[in-house]
Amino acid sequence: MNHGPPAPAGGTPRTVLMCPGQGAYLPGALRHLSGVPSVARVLRRVDAHSTALGGTGPPVGRLLTDPAAPDPDRLLRADPLSFDLATYAAVVASATVLLDLARPPVHAVLGHSVGDLAALTVAGALTPEQAVRLLHLRDRLLRDAALPAAGLLATDMTADRAAELLRAEGLTKLRIAARNAPAQTVLAGPADQLAAAGRSARELGHRATELTSRTAYHHPLLAEVHRTFRRHLRTEPVARPEPAVYTATTHRAVRTPAGLRAMAAAHLTAPMAFDRTLRALSRAGFTTYLDSGPRALLSTLARAGLPGCTTAAPSRTPAGVERLRDRLAAALE
After folding, report:
1. Which helix (H) or strand (E) holds 180?
2. How far apart are the C-alpha atoms of 51 and 168, rounded to whole Å?
3. R_g (Cα) of the chain, nearest Å
4. Taking the CB of residue 209, how many other CB atoms lie within 10 A of it?
5. If you average pLDDT over residues 215-243, what whole number do you get?
6. How far apart are the C-alpha atoms of 267 and 152, rounded to whole Å?
7. What is the domain extent for residue 166?
8. In Å, how far from its chain's centre is CA 283?
9. In whole numbers, what is the pLDDT of the chain averaged over residues?
């Protein structure tokens, strides 16, 4: 999945392609792109390898090309592994098209949460077959862990305000999972405490929305799953990423084999500071932030965290190549 030239020397405007996580699954999202060779190839590889590993869920090729496929909540409840595979495939397949269309070209890839696996694939550090195998492994570890009901809650609070609320309400099992933007903080933890945090936040006039999530990612609840996953990753071959690859759990490019393996597992327990990563990219000369997922989730956060930056979300709704090209040109002109 190598695409794009190396980052240019200082002073030249640079573009980063952002790879979202769980919010990237949308039924039929790729229905207008199914005939694009690179898209068809990604969907075929994901489905073939998942089947070879014993996967029995609906093919991602159908989930991502049929608008009548199950919605995110329904698919997650019925088949969490299929939800994960479709999320991954949607981002990688969309990225193959955007990388070909982007002018100026993309010089870095940024993953957000489980979108790190897509980012590692787009940057050439992992193959789709490796990522599918890791998603199957993670699915088995999560099932075997028999975790309590837990999840994620998005709020419009600052991180400091969210921390104050947790202290005031005695919600000791909750953690800040993501500092996404100045006024978007995501909480993670057991379902009962998340519900209490949501009620308290709304009573104070804040928005609080439960996210579609299998469990409390970016939380110590998954520490044992993380340790086992990392042990498996020690022997996983990784290639040098090209272009550079970043993750929302750190503000520096990830370059070493050990760092790339850690990145593949970071979404399990490491908190994200997406706003900090964006500021680091801005200081490094990145001026344009290209969203590879539907609904323009990450481009919205980029605008909030970097006022005045250029963003583009051509895949925000299903569209064919020419429509994507037009949207990209309109955003970047």
Report:
1. strand 175-181
2. 49
3. 19
4. 12
5. 97
6. 13
7. 150-210
8. 22
9. 94
